[in-house]
Design goal:
Pfam families: Sugar_tr. The protein has about 525 residues and is an all-alpha fold. It contains 24 helices and no strands. Helix 8 packs antiparallel against helix 17 (about 320-340). The longest helix is centred in the C-terminal third of the chain and has 30 residues, at about 420-450. The radius of gyration is 23 Å and the shape is globular.
C-alpha cells in the first residue's frame, strides 16, 4: 500500500536471553553524555552571540549594528559571515573528524574513540574560555567540532550494540535526550551569565562546557567495551566475558556465536562503501540521506542555534529572549522523553506524520504573526503576540523532539544490512553535519533576506518531508535489524523493485561462498551503527 507498503509479517528472528542489567543502564547513561556535550555546544553559541560584551570584543561590526538607532533593520542586524562561522565551524570540523572516527571505532574500539572525543572537548573548552581574538575563538570551536565528530560516531554505535532488542529504540534516544538536556543547560547558563557585570559572563558560558566534557571523559573511562568491538578485533574470550556481564545470564552462547559469525561475514566485505552504491542498497541510502537533509530543513537547528538572537530580533529584548530560550529548551527535553516512551509502541511513521502536521501549523502561524506585527523597523512586539510566538515555537520544538530529532538517527541505524552498516553510519553522520553547517552558516543571512518568510520556507520543507514519509518510508518498529530486507524492503510498494535477488547472490559469491544468516534481533554486530 502507499502508506509504507509493509504487509503484516509474523514475528521472526532469534530472540536471545537478555536481562536489563544495571551495568547496561549505567553504561548507556554514561556514554550518552556525549550528547550532553553536543547539545551544550549547540545551545551556548546562540546565547553568547546575543551578549553585547561578547559581540563588542569579537564582532564589533555586529555590535555596532545592534547599538545603532539609525539602523532600521531588525532582521539584518546580526547578518555577519564571521558570526555565522563561529557557530558553523564546529560542524565543518565535525564532518572532517568523522572520517578519522570511523577508523578508530573499528580498529581501536568504541571506548577509546569516546575518550578521544572527551580530550578534544576539554582542550576546545579551555581555548574558547580563554579566547583573546576571533582566531582563537574559531580554533576552540574547531576542536569542539572534532569532539562532536568522534562522539557522534562512537556513542550511538555503543548504545546500539550494548542494548537489548526490546529497549533498543528507547536507549538509542538517550543520546538525543542528552542533546536536549545539554541545550537546556546552556540556555540556563546563558540566562545567568548574561546578568554578570564586567564583561566576562560569556567566558563562564563557554568555560562551563567543561562540565559535560568531564562527564563524557569519565564515562568513557568507566564503561565496558562492547562485545562486538572485542570480537571484531579477535579478543573472543574478553568479548564473551563482557557479553555475560551485560546480559545478566550465563546463557549467552547462541548470541556469542551469532556475533562471531557476524564478525566473520563483515570481514569478508572488503569495500563497504562500494557495496553501499549497489542497486539493492539504494533504498536505505536514499532514505538515510533524505532523513538527514529533512532533519535540518525543518529549521530546528536554526531555531536552537539562534533562539535568543531570533527573539531579540522580533522585539523581545535580550533578557526576555534568553528567558524564552530556556522555556524552549525545557520543552525540548520533556518532548524527547515522550519519544523514548512511544517510539517502540506507536511506531516511527506515526510519530513523524503527527509531528509533520504540528510543525507545519506552528510555522505558518509564526510567519503570519511576524509578517503582520513585526516590521523591519519595529521596536516591540505586543505582549500577547510575543507569548503566542513563544507558544508556537514550543509547539514546533515539541513535535520535532519526539519525531525528526531522535528518529532521524534511529531509522538509518535500523535499515542498513550488515555488510554496509558501518559505511551507512558514516554517510548518516557526514550528510547530517554537512547540512547542519549549511544551515548554521546561512540562517542569519536568510533571516535578513526572507524576514518572516523564513518560517514559510521551513514549513514548505515540512510539507515535502511529510509526503515523503507517507509514500516512501516503511515502518521498522519491532523488526529485527537483520530481517529488514525480507520483511520491509521486499514488501514495500516502491522499494521492492530495487531488491534484486540475482544481484545479491552474485555479490555473495564474490565475497565468499556463504549464505545469509538469520538475523539476531539485537542487531548486535561489529559493523552495526547507532
Amino acid at each position: 500500500m502507499a502508506g509504507g507498503g509493509l504487509a503484516p509479517a509474523k514475528a521472526g528472528g532469534v530472540e536471545f536471553e537478555a536481562k536489563i542489567t544495571p551495568i547496561v543502564i549505567l553504561s548507556c547513561i554514561m556514554a550518552a553524555t556525549g550528547g550532553l556535550m553536543f547539545g551544550y555546544d549547540v545551545g551556548v553559541s546562540g546565547g553568547v552571540t546575543s551578549m553585547p560584551d561578547f559581540l563588542e570584543k569579537f564582532f564589533p561590526e555586529v555590535y555596532g549594528k545592534t547599538q545603532d538607532p539609525k539602523l532600521n533593520s531588525n532582521y539584518c542586524k546580526y547578518d555577519n559571515q564571521n558570526l555565522q562561522m563561529f557557530t558553523s565551524s564546529l560542524y565543518l570540523a565535525g564532518l572532517v573528524a568523522t572520517f578519522f572516527a570511523s577508523w578508530t571505532t573499528r580498529n581501536l574500539g568504541r571506548k577509546p574513540t569516546m575518550l578521544i572525543a572527551g580530550f578534544f572537548f576539554l582542550v576546545g573548552v579551555v581555548i574558547n574560555a580563554a579566547a583573546q581574538d576571533l582566531a582563537m575563538l574559531i580554533i576552540g570551536r574547531v576542536l569542539l567540532g572534532c569532539g562532536v565528530g568522534f562522539a557522534n560516531q562512537a556513542v550511538p554505535l555503543f548504545l546500539s550494540e550494548i542494548a537489548p532488542t526490546r529497549i533498543r529504540g528507547g536507549l538509542n534516544i538517550l543520546f538525543q535526550l542528552n542533546v536536549t538536556i545539554g541545550i537546556l543547560f546552556a540556555n540556563l547558563v546563558n540566562y545567568g551569565t548574561a546578568k554578570i557585570k564586567g564583561g566576562w559572563g560569556w567566558r563562564l558560558s563557554l568555560g562551563l562546557a567543561g562540565f559535560p566534557a568531564l562527564l563524557l571523559t569519565a564515562g568513557a573511562l568507566l564503561v565496558l567495551e562492547t562485545p562486538n568491538s572485542l570480537i571484531e578485533r579477535g579478543r573472543l574470550d574478553e568479548g564473551k566475558t563482557v557479553l555475560r556481564k551485560i546480559r545478566g545470564t550465563d546463557n549467552i552462547e547462541p548470541e556469542f556465536l551469532e556475533l562471531v559469525e557476524a564478525s566473520r561475514v563483515a570481514k569478508e566485505v572488503k569495500h563497504p562503501f562500494r557495496n553501499l552504491l549497489k542497486r539493492r542498497n539504494w533504498p536505505q541510502l536514499a532514505i538515510t540521506i533524505a532523513l538527514q537533509i529533512f532533519q535540518q530543513f525543518t529549521g530546528i537547528n536554526a531555531i536552537m542555534f539562534y533562539a535568543p538572537v531570533l527573539f531579540d530580533t522580533v522585539g523581545f529584548g535580550s533578557d526576555a529572549a534568553l528567558y524564552s530560550a530556556v522555556i524552549i529548551g525545557a520543552v525540548n527535553v520533556l518532548s524527547t522523553c515522550v519519544s523514548i516512551y512511544s517510539v517502540d509502541k506507536v511506531g516511527r511513521r506515526m510519530l513523524l506524520l503527527e509531528a509533520g502536521v504540528q510543525m507545519f501549523f506552528s510555522q505558518v502561524v509564526i510567519a503570519i504573526i511576524l509578517g503582520i506585527k513585526v516590521k523591519d523597523d519595529s521596536n516591540d512586539l505586543h505582549r500577547g503576540f510575543a507569548v503566542l510566538v513563544v507558544l508556537m515555537v514550543c509547539t514546533f520544538v515539541s513535535a520535532f523532539a519526539w519525531s525528526w530529532g531522535p528518529l532521524g538517527w534511529l531509522i538509518p541505524s535500523e535499515t542498513f544490512p550488515l555488510e554496509t552498516r558501518s559505511a551507512g553510519q558514516s554517510v548518516t553522520v557526514c550528510v547530517n553535519l554537512i547540512f547542519t553547517f549549511v544551515m548554521a552558516q546561512s540562517f542569519l543571512s536568510m533571516l535578513c533576506t526572507l524576514k518572516f518568510g523564513i518560517f514559510l520556507f521551513f514549513s514548505s520543507w515540512v510539507f515535502i518531508m511529510s509526503i515523503f514519509v507517507v509514500f516512501l518510508l516503511p515502518e521498522t518498529k519491532n523488526i529485527p535489524i537483520e530481517e529488514m530486507t525480507e520483511r520491509v524492503w521486499k514488501k514495500h510498494w516502491f522499494w521492492k523493485r530495487f531488491m534484486d535477488d540475482n544481484e545479491e547472490v552474485a555479490a555473495t559469491g564474490a565475497n565468499g561462498d556463504h549464505s545469509p544468516k538469520k538475523g539476531h534481533s539485537n542487531g548486535l554486530d561489529p559493523a552495526s551503527q547507532l
